[in-house]
From TrEMBL:
Superkingdom: Bacteria
Keyword Membrane: yes
Name of the featured protein: MipA/OmpV family protein
Record's signal peptide: 1-19
Cell compartments where the protein resides: Cell outer membrane
Length: 264
């Protein structure tokens, strides 16, 4: 069975569900904001790798907001600066993605002239960097710059996201649009053919630096005093440089999540 690793799922869901739908560092001034929320979610995800089917996976939801430190799913960090709706954080987070070579479709790869046995694993990274968030009546903008510190890709990612939260029928709804630039090292590591694989006879392919765009919506609704329902959906558009990779059989990816959390 092909799968997306749980750590990757936590990263994707924490970005769209926890960062958007639950109270975050910018809300710390509100007295009713609970410092800790814990719950369980289920995610269905398809990231476009060759032969990869939609996967349904349960995972824990964790959101802790202290005066200085915080944890949101697979992201942890410290607030460095707060002023006039601006928050600047130092963060450590689970990286972009990962897939084991045996989780590719042997048949799909063969049609592209690739022997699955000649491939290597694409391991997840641990990234460190800085995130800046600005909130106003016009919405919220988040900019992130991070670099792999685990030795997987040894590359960088830069992202920007704009969201506009509003309330309707008891829900807090946050539609957003964003883009992420993958450095050459990151794009080549996850979507290209590695030098060792080329030596084994796999046709060379290096996408180089790539810009990935996405649209998403996050929803949350209180259930009583302690509980909350959370939902999110994300659609990712892959550029031609990535979708033309022999490791990829789609021009897009998608993730849908639903979960429940309890305040403590």
């Amino acid at each position: 069975m092909r799968k997306i690793y749980p750590l990757t799922l936590l990263m994707m869901v924490s970005a769209s569900a926890l960062a958007q739908s639950t109270p975050s560092s910018e809300d710390q001034g509100e007295e009713h904001t609970p410092p800790l929320r814990v719950g369980l979610g289920i995610v269905a995800s398809d990231q476009g790798y060759a032969g990869q089917s939609t996967q349904i996976t349960p995972f824990p939801l964790i959101d802790y907001e202290g005066h200085r430190f915080f944890v949101r799913g697979a992201t942890g960090g410290a607030h460095l600066v707060k002023f006039d709706g601006v928050v600047i954080d130092a963060i450590v987070t689970a990286g972009f993605t990962s897939i084991n070579e045996r989780d590719f479709s042997r048949t799909d790869l063969a049609r592209r002239g690739v022997n699955r046995d000649d491939l290597q694993d694409r391991k997840h990274s641990i990234d460190a960097g800085v995130a800046a968030t600005w909130k106003s009546v016009a919405g919220q903008v988040r900019v992130v710059a991070k670099s792999d510190i685990s030795g997987s890709s040894e590359g960088q990612e830069y992202s920007v996201e704009y969201g506009y939260p509003f309330h309707f029928a008891g829900f807090k709804i946050t539609p957003s649009v964003g883009a992420t630039f993958l450095s050459r090292k990151v794009a080549d590591y996850y979507y290209g053919i590695h030098p060792q694989e080329v030596l084994r006879g796999v046709p060379a392919y290096e996408p180089g630096g790539s810009l990935i765009s996405e649209v998403s919506v996050g929803l949350t609704r209180p259930i009583g005093e302690k509980w909350a329902l959370m939902m999110s959906a994300t659609y990712t558009s892959l550029p031609d440089k990535i979708s033309h990779s022999p490791l990829v059989d789609s021009s897009h990816g998608s993730t849908v999540m639903i979960g429940f959390t309890r305040a403590f």
